[in-house]
Amino acid sequence: MPSWLVSVIFYGFILIWTFIFIFRFREHITPMTGMMCAMTTGMIAGFGGGTVIAALLPLHFLLSAVASALLGLIAGAAVGAYFGLVAFLDGALSGMMAGMMGAMLVAMLPSTQWEQTIFFGMVAGGLFHFVQSLMLQGQIREERLSNAGWAAKSPAFMLFATASLIFAYTSAENVYAIHQPNHDHHHDGYEASPPHNGIELNITASDFAFSPNTLKLKAGTPYLITFYNNGSVEHDFAVSALDIHIHAMPGESVQSSVTIAEPGVYRVKCTLPGHEEAGMFGTITVTDE
Description:
By secondary structure, this protein is of the alpha/beta class. It has eight helices and nine strands.
């Protein structure tokens, strides 16, 4: 079973248990407890779902962020709706913010750390939900809980179920691919050649900037670009108009020879989700002189 499916089952189980319990005993839960449960449920669903969605859609950061925010918003609002407008809004806003944070966290980390990040999110979500289940069960009189099923009245059930799913996740197949774009592309404006020809250009990537971030090159002249990644996460150096794409993992340096045929001003950016918005962009000006 793939690891993403285990994590979906984990969060789905938490949400289903919470919805059923609150629906059944909503008349016996105080508004304050209900509001706290709405916020907690929204944050668990949003943050946890955000890490999984962002890892499954690494090339679509905006889509994953919106989907994660909606997931957290709906989960928190659905619980809060039983307890009034304030609980509804608090649950929705908490879930929305947590969803965006979960997606952004995965987008900012190298793909080699995605599985570990999702695992720690599941552990935190399981602990929060266990505390929440104790709080909810404490609101209900013992004689009412005695008529409910074992899953509703036993804290041990929740602890065992969540721990079992977390253990299953550690044994599941890791399907979160490490995306490393191909360095060698061909386009009318850009010609790839062996990395020992051309005028040397050194470009350094940090978290989150290029140095230098502006270059002035001569059309038709071969250049040897050495791209250093001094950051703590993976970065790339991309010029979409010329189909230039140089990718490097943390601590890695990559060389690529290029010759730009057409004069013009071209935008440079890091295509990793969120990196351009954080400041990783620049320009290449190509002239005939």
